[in-house]
Specification:
The complex is a heterodimer of chains A (142) and B (371). Chain A is an alpha/beta fold. Helices cover 37% and strands 23% of the residues of chain A. Chain A contains 5 helices and 8 strands. Classes of the chains: A alpha/beta (142), B mainly beta (371).
Chain lengths: 142, 371
């Protein structure tokens, strides 16, 4: 539904950054992640902070307890077959304690975000601890 | 002991009641609504009704400073009612995320959080998150194994005592990062992340715990159980056995509510429809008496009364087939409350001692007692 694109906005800068991130991470040796949030008042989707997280532990510490976030993650994997693959996925982080308002906000922008970021697929998690099993999830799906 | 102030509000059970800080407003839970009464002279008049819950309200508490009212009900919800300048109350739903009824709610002393006990074996500790404009509830689950019947806060607003039908009275830490400041080390422990169990106490027969209360200093915990006993615990430090665990068994019916009137005295009320005192310290506790005046001793016991009672006795035997005394003595209880007391709360304090308490009961009366 393209109605969301009229509601949620991306600044040109964010779009460029998204593009760059996607292209640069396919050659990286370690996981790379950026956290995105939707600004409640302006309905703009932008980066939560300027850091690229290389460590899943750090990433799970940064995620807030009671607010949803989007995480774009690129994770280099060596599959059982020996093949090297770097899936680029979007993580929809939705803790159960967040308000209904926030849930609706993030649910509406989910598809838009995925298309803009050109991510492979969306993984839903509801607690920061689930990030530790992300490797298995990614491997299992391949 | 002067005469208690009796307010017979209506003929329905009052599961919980709460006074505002200036004691001029009384919030009473009446089935699915809260009735707010305003003091006019010596009586309370109905002023407002808070509607919102679908099922029986089980807990109500008014925060002393901000005037906010929190209510919880068997419909698994809690509402926070904010007073607005024009006298209307604005309700905010708090999603507790429990799947059973809520049994009781209390504001913490600094009014930033409140705790709701529930039949879902969970205590929901709720705090307000500014950035989301939303009340968030965090759950305390382990190791509660059955319904939580009552919750009580320690003066530092971090430690929470809970009584449960699994026979235990437990002390938890409900420290929430961002809302609470790190509490000072106390006899209950030092490093206290959320959901730490600082103490777990069983009463002698493992009966259901009806009510728990921290002493005014927070260094002792008392709880009353369904086996008609009151247990007082004096902890000595984290991970150490307590200094003393004293249990007093009474021959009365179980107590449903208790509170500390000073460091060495407890006031308890329950199914006996009366209010009782217990006093003691680390060396021992005992029941010291009732707050009721003995009505039989008042008045002139003169001969006429005895004659009257003889006449009445035969008359009632003839009319009603029973050889009781005066007709009223058979249908009315000798205590002020005519049915069990459900909650006892502090009414007036001075110099670290509570001087008056209020009790609400199943008979629809709220009585203010002078200790």
């Amino acid at each position: 539904m393209s109605s969301e694109s009229r509601l949620y906005t991306f600044s040109k800068e964010t779009k460029d950054k998204l593009r760059k991130f996607r292209l640069s991470t396919s050659r990286a040796k370690d996981p790379q992640a950026i956290i995105y949030q939707v600004d409640k008042s302006s309905l703009e989707i932008k980066q939560a902070d300027d850091e690229v997280y290389k460590n899943m532990q750090e990433l799970s510490d940064e995620l807030p307890d009671n607010s949803p976030r989007y995480v774009l993650l690129s994770y280099p994997l060596t599959l059982a077959s020996g093949r090297l693959s770097v899936p680029y996925v979007m993580i929809n982080y939705l803790p159960p304690t967040c308000s209904s308002e926030m849930r609706m906000l993030y649910a509406g922008a989910k598809e838009l975000m995925r298309n803009q970021a050109e991510a492979g697929r969306i993984i839903e998690i509801d607690s920061a601890e689930d990030l530790e099993e992300i490797e298995e999830k990614l491997k299992g799906e391949e | 002991m002067s005469t208690p102030e009796i307010h017979h509000l209506f003929h329905a059970p009052i599961s919980d009641h709460s006074f505002s800080a200036d004691r001029s407003t009384l919030a009473v839970a009446r089935d699915t609504n809260i009735e707010l009464y305003h003091r006019t002279g010596k009586t309370f008049k109905l002023q407002d009704e808070l509607r919102g819950h679908d099922k029986t309200i089980t807990g109500v508490d008014i925060a002393p400073h901000s005037g906010r009212i929190v209510t919880c009900s068997q419909d698994r919800n809690a509402y926070v009612w904010e007073p607005s300048p024009d006298g209307q109350w604005k309700p905010t739903l708090v999603l507790l995320r429990i799947n059973r009824a809520a049994t009781g709610v209390r504001w913490c002393p600094n009014e930033t959080k409140f705790a709701v006990g529930s039949g879902a074996r969970i205590i929901a500790v709720c705090y307000f998150e500014e950035e989301n404009d939303w009340w968030v509830s965090k759950h305390i689950k382990k190791p509660i194994r059955s319904t939580v019947t009552s919750v009580s806060w320690h003066p530092n607003s971090v430690l929470l005592a809970a009584g449960s039908t699994d026979g235990h009275a437990r002390v938890f830490s409900s420290f929430v990062k961002g809302v609470d400041e790190r509490p000072e080390p106390s006899v209950w422990g030092e490093r206290l992340p959320f959901n730490t169990v600082c103490g777990e106490y069983l009463n002698p027969t493992a009966g259901w715990v009806h009510d728990v209360a921290f002493s005014p200093s927070g260094d002792a915990l008392a709880f009353c159980a369904h086996d008609s006993s009151v247990t007082v615990v004096y902890p000595s430090g984290a991970d150490q056995p307590p200094k003393a665990v004293i249990s007093v068994s009474t021959q009365l019916l179980p107590f449903t509510s208790l509170l500390w009137s000073s460091e060495t005295e407890l006031v308890a009320a329950g199914y006996d429809c009366g209010v009782y005192r217990l006093s003691g310290d680390t060396s021992g506790w005992q029941l010291t008496g009732s707050l009721e005046e003995n009505k039989k001793e008042g008045g002139r016991p003169g001969l006429e009364q005895r004659e009257e009672s003889a006449l009445n006795m035969f008359r009632s035997m003839d009319l009603k087939g029973r050889s009781g005394g005066a007709a009223t003595e058979d249908t009315k209880l000798k205590t002020v409350h005519q049915n069990s007391i459900s909650t006892a709360r502090r009414y007036e304090e001075g110099n670290g001692k509570v001087s008056r308490i209020s009790t609400g009961g199943v008979d629809g009366r709220v009585v203010v007692w002078t200790l």
